[in-house]
Amino acid sequence: MPRLQPLSEAERAEISAAPRTSTAHRALLARLPAMNAVECGGQAGLAHLHRDFTVLAWNLERCLFPLDSAAHVAPKGPQVLLLSEMDHGMARTKQRHTTEDMARALGMAYAFGVEFFEMGLGGATERSFCEDDDNRLGWHGNAILSAVPFEDATMFRLDDHGHWFTPDAGGDAGQPRIGGRNAIAAILPGADGPICFVSTHLESNARADHRATQFDRLMDGVDRFAPDMPVIIGGDLNTGNSAPPGDDWRDEPLFDRAGARGYDWSLTPAGVTTRPSLITPHPARRMKLDWLCARGLTCLRNALLPSLDATGTPLSDHDAVLATLRG
């Protein structure tokens, strides 16, 4: 749809008064229109992707600086951007629609889906960026920006039990949210036929088996939505997060499960993908969280794009991953 439907004051009050249970969360999630639709807008400049095209995946950590972020990636010439942690109507990002702002700056079309309706203003560092004392919309989610028009788009919900809503589910009780991890999928016209692109964000506050189950659901959704079609999946998979001591991203079972279904992980460049940022100023945090994989396409080259702008200011606590592919 061209615009997602804002939550009414009555719906916000119902959420605040609801019991913090998975049953209550599922009922709320199912009947909130904005949580079950994809907003599509912007303007694409090309009819179809080039035969060799570049795709970029980037967790923008709320997207504090949408115009600077757009200017940062533009010289790399990506025809598709797979973005996560994009704010829409949040006080910490000046109530902006950060996805739409980036799409306009880059001359692209966009698809945006809500991961969470956030009931608060975020953590202490996030609140320091707020000029308002409430969120106009309270949406946070994943997006795809494209230089070509969307043929179709959808959302896959990867969980609905209220991981960040119910106290016993494992989420942060100080950041209550309605929603759950999701994936935005879109079919785009390639030089030789349609290609499916997926932007996703797996759970950080969980173990590896939980993320593997989420990735299984994602792959099942792709097979239903875009059967027998080349596929690219990118995003913050939170690999190695909340792992027991001694474990790291190499212990995540999702890699082998995806490989068994024909996905190639060589699109992802070597190296860690996190860095200290304005919201997450933790220099000791060095993790490999961000990935690209594909099925039915050839990777020509890949690279990391550091998320420091020309002044050295970090645009995110994640660096971007890029790959140039041949369809």
Written description of the protein model:
The structure is a single chain. The protein is of the alpha+beta class and 327 residues long. It has 7 helices and 13 strands. Strands 1, 2, 3, 4, 5, 7, 12 and 13 form an 8-stranded mixed sheet that branches. Strands 6-8-9-10-11 form a 5-stranded mixed sheet, with helices on one face. Helix 3 runs parallel beside helix 4 and helix 6 packs parallel to helix 7. It is globular, with a radius of gyration of 18 Å. The mean pLDDT is 95.
Count of individual beta strands: 13
Overall pLDDT metric: 95
Proportion of helical residues: 10-25%
Structural class call reads alpha+beta
The rough form would be described as globular
- How much of the residues is beta strand, in percent? 25-35%
**Total count of helical runs of at least 4 residues:** 7
Radius of gyration: 18 Å
